[in-house]
Design brief:
426 residues; 7-stranded parallel β-sheet; 9-stranded mixed β-sheet
Length: 426
């Protein structure tokens, strides 16, 4: 049967969908509380609308926006779709079936758009692979929301008006408490800490503020969906599901994320959870081979590439890293855990920065193809402090090593002495 000449929702589709839907619902029911189920609202779309092809066969963007909104509802019920609209489904089985139909239409149309009918049999299993991972995606979305509490603006005018003084808050290090909770994978340490300060009532309000108004966790969820559609391995706990990378659709989802939030996250970037994208509307860019850990705070920046070759060409970022505004990390730069990089800094080329370093603002660190066609790395040890306005460059074939706990004064100019040691240029 040529699916490009017939409906995509035929009797064979229904027959194959039923057992997959039943198994998926059995897995999903425990992750939804009664409160979740009462809030869940999934916007439906007619089968005729889903079957309509546009352009060269790709599903239209209006439907894509609907599907992404519905998936947001699946991971954070009540966060996207308004209640009491017509044509909504809030019963869990009806809701998940509706989302499955919508996703299936988009995946099938993506294959048809590139004239590939060899993978149509795998389209349904690819869809249910994503739905099977909803517990993981729901958890990731929650931890990304929790990470947004690192933003001091969650202590807003409403909370201050209700009796919490700004002076009291200024003396408290909330970020370390939030990082502890992320490490322990439990909200309890943070909630307990708030209780000791008689601030326990703030937690629920702050989470509501984030889910209602903060864009970072939403664009990270878009990325999670796009990334899932690029994967080939079976999802956890279900080796029977076989999925294939979907053409076009992951990039279309990433483009919508960029349109809404100006965060251009390549769908193949590997990103952990419990991350805060702060002010993404000013622009965050990641690349295909990039890796970002968990617990990071990322301000508007570029995590880009320098090479046009198909290889590791984008930065690798560890856990609990903070990257300041207008910073550019370009090429196979490696940043280890708990390092902080200041604003307006540029790091490029073959640079490895170890744990707990503090890189100041307006710093330039990079390897340069000068006398050497293949310059050595710049390797910065643990707990190094680099002052504002410093330039560190390596044009030598030999690696330049900045030793552990070195302190480089502001506005220094450091080069390779020819033996791998730093030389200060006056």
């Amino acid at each position: 049967m040529n699916m490009s000449e017939t409906t995509i929702f035929d009797s064979l589709y229904e027959q194959r969908k039923r057992p997959l839907l039943a198994n998926t619902l059995e897995r999903l029911r425990p992750i939804y509380s009664n409160t979740d189920l009462n809030a869940l609202r999934i916007d439906s779309t007619s089968r005729e609308g889903l079957s309509q092809r546009s352009g060269r066969g790709f599903v239209n963007r209006d439907i894509l926006e609907t599907v992404l909104g519905n998936l947001l509802e699946c991971v954070a019920p009540g966060s996207h779709n308004a209640r009491h609209l017509r044509n909504q489904k809030h019963d869990l089985s009806d809701a998940i079936e509706e989302v499955a139909d919508q996703l299936y239409a988009m995946v099938v149309q993506s294959f048809l758009a590139v004239r590939d009918e060899t993978h149509l049999e795998a389209a349904l299993q690819t869809v249910f692979s994503l739905l099977w991972e909803l517990p993981r995606l729901k958890s990731r979305a929650l931890w990304n929301r929790f990470a947004s509490l690192k933003d001091p603006a969650v202590w807003d005018a409403y909370l201050l008006h209700n009796g919490i003084s700004r002076e009291k808050l200024a003396a408290i290090d909330f970020r370390s408490q939030i990082d502890n909770a992320i490490q322990e994978r439990s909200f309890d340490p943070y909630q307990d800490y708030l209780s000791t300060l008689n601030l326990g009532s703030a937690f629920e309000y702050q989470l509501q503020l984030v889910v209602s108004t903060y864009p970072g966790w939403r664009v990270l969820f878009y990325h999670d969906v796009a990334h899932a559609l690029t994967r080939i391995e079976a999802p956890d706990d279900n080796s029977d599901l076989h999925r294939v990378p979907v053409p076009l659709l992951p990039r279309a989802i990433a483009e919508l994320g960029g349109r809404y939030y100006q965060a251009d996250l390549h769908p193949e970037t590997q990103i952990g959870d419990a991350n805060l994208l702060e002010h993404p509307h000013r622009g965050v860019t990641t690349g295909q081979t990039g890796i970002i850990g968990s617990g990071c705070v990322i301000y508007p920046c570029t995590l880009g590439g320098l090479s046009v070759k198909v290889k590791q060409r984008h930065p690798v970022i560890g856990d609990f890293v903070e990257i300041g505004t207008d910073t550019s990390l370009l090429g196979p730069v490696q940043i280890a855990d708990r390092t902080t990089i200041g604003t307006n800094t540029e790091i490029y080329g073959f640079v490895e920065i170890d744990q707990r370093c503090r890189i100041g603002s307006s710093v330039v660190i990079g390897t340069i193809r000068g006398a050497s066609e293949h310059p050595g790395k710049i390797m910065i040890g643990d707990e190094v402090r680099i002052g504002d306005g410093t330039v560190i460059e390596n044009t030598s074939e030999m690696d330049l090593i900045i030793p552990t706990r070195a302190q480089i004064p502001a506005r220094s100019h450091v080069a390779n002495d020819g033996f791998g040691f730093p030389r200060y240029i006056t």
